[in-house]
Amino acid sequence: MGENERVQQVELLSSVNDLYGGVRVNMEHHPMDSKDFATSLKASISQWKQQGKRGVWIKLPIEQVNLVEVAVKVLVVMENGGRFKETGVWKFPTGVVNEGEDICTAAVREVKEETGIDAEFVEVLAFRESHKSFFSKSDLFFVCMLKPRSFDIQKQDQEVEAAQWMPFEEYAAQPFIREHELFNYVAKICLAKSDKGYAGFSPVSAATSSGKTSCLYCNNPDIHLLTSGHQ
User: Fold this and answer.
1) For 47, which DSSP code?
2) What mean pLDDT is predicted for residues 28-36?
3) Which position among 3, 5, 11, 113 bears the catalytic label?
4) Tens digit of each residue's pLDDT (9 = 90 or more) over 141-151
5) CA-CA distance, 162 to 41, in Å (whole number)?
6) Any catalytic annotation for residue 3?
7) Model pTM?
8) DSSP for 99-138, written as a single string
9) Could you give the CA distance from residue 228 to residue 143 in angstroms, rounded to a whole number?
């Protein structure tokens, strides 16, 4: 049975197209239990992907707060080694950028390697600069937002003890996250992003003076970059 046939066997969520290539879903007059909503949401997302939709906005009334956990989850891992070994802390997948590799490419690769999840890069939400870190050199740590294109986890056994989709509130409520200042800031930034009040930086391809192409990260990817020649 093909994916299209499976999608047709469940109720798809009613939606309207927005002006930005996405869809809007209003659940105010469509009460559902969380299990049915999860099934319908998964099938609907599959169809929206095939239609090339860029995003999904879901409006949930307070009476259907039970559906929030289904709609908003983050991908987290528990590591086999390093400072988080045997601590029981769930954290975001992390990794090191290879030489000559763009940040956006590295983020997608690391998530794929650790969890098996295919994803699309969306934004750099924030970055942290520290000095005299590795080999007494400065270090840049980027917090990136990705959009999943698959959901079935296949974890990497070498580095990852466990991986799962977790409600964001549960992730942020972990004692380590709440007590560690940097991780707490990151959690608050992610929450601000989910509330649509925070703008990150998306990559735009731009040519350098040497003729090479690099990524310029800005919070308006649709901006027109103007070039002018010397008089």
Assistant:
1) H
2) 81
3) 113
4) 999 999 998 88
5) 25
6) no
7) 0.68
8) TT--HHHHHHHHHHHHH---EEEEEEEEEEEESS-GGG--
9) 34
